[in-house]
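Notes, p. 3: input format for complexes.
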Amino acid sequence: MRRNLRGMIVAVTGASAGIGKELAVQLSAAGAKLSLSARRLDRLEELNQQLGGKHLVVQADVSKREDCEQFVAKTLAHFGRIDTLVCNAGYGIYRLTHEYSPEEMREIFATNVFGTTDVIHAAAPALLKQESRDGCRAQIMIVSSAAARRSTPFIGPYSATKAAQLSIAEALRVELKSQRIAVTSVHPIMTRTEFGAVAEGMSGVKLPRGGPGFTQTVEHVVRRMVRGIEKPIPEVWPHRPTRIGILVAAMMPRVTDMTLKRFMRRVEDENRPQT
Ligand SMILES: NC(=O)c1ccc[n+]([C@@H]2O[C@H](COP(=O)([O-])OP(=O)(O)OC[C@H]3O[C@@H](n4cnc5c(N)ncnc54)[C@H](OP(=O)(O)O)[C@@H]3O)[C@@H](O)[C@H]2O)c1
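Output follows (275 residues plus NAP):
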């Protein structure tokens, strides 16, 4: 099944920066009609102007259920349908797991997990009712992470939210298949966006950014996502070696723990205050 991007209605959360913003740029160039949301309305309006002013922008904080409902309602009122719903909004905090405050723990789940499930819950009745287009009634794309399959020090709770998103995608994919609704999860490795600065800004902890083999450009990640929208597949892994590496790591937890322990010491050394 290949879906035509021209005229496709795509709703994206977290479109004011990074992956969501680049997705808007690439999809707009391919002729899709977009509903773009995030908390920073000024950024969304500026992006829409750059793209010719033809898209819908909706201010929404996905950690708030009523904002998720409004985003979906405004999108449906404007376009009448949603061909692909991209649950992308999210953030991380670089902090040891036991040092997360209970509030931080709840907030990160509220945005990354409930921000995903609340948008899906709000959209599902309309998605299930709409006519198929190019053989597909709709697609739900959830931007998870490579960390969904193996957590590492300093991103434990963040990885837990990404694992939760993956579990939701896996179940939904089977549950909705007979309704011709495709479900795709996306698993980037470290990608050059504002993500690292936000995660460091919230904790003060700096993580090594990794060499060229361990980071990806946002353009590359989004090209793979666009391919996954055109031709829906279960999982998009923009960095294939990581997909294989993580499967091997899962079979050898003790060895993986030892490797990650070395990484943890390196981060602790680099973050030790200079005397
Ligand atoms: N960059 C990476 O290394 C990486 C790797 C794997 C997975 N990911 C995932 O990719 C997704 C996008 O991240 P990114 O790298 O593009 O980061 P980014 O550049 O920081 O962009 C994050 C986007 O999410 C939005 N957002 C954050 N909290 C929100 C909230 N409560 N309500 C609505 N929007 C919210 C931000 O908009 P506002 O601040 O304007 O609301 C922004 O548009 C995230 O889910 C992240 O977990 C990123």
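The chain has a mean pLDDT of 96.
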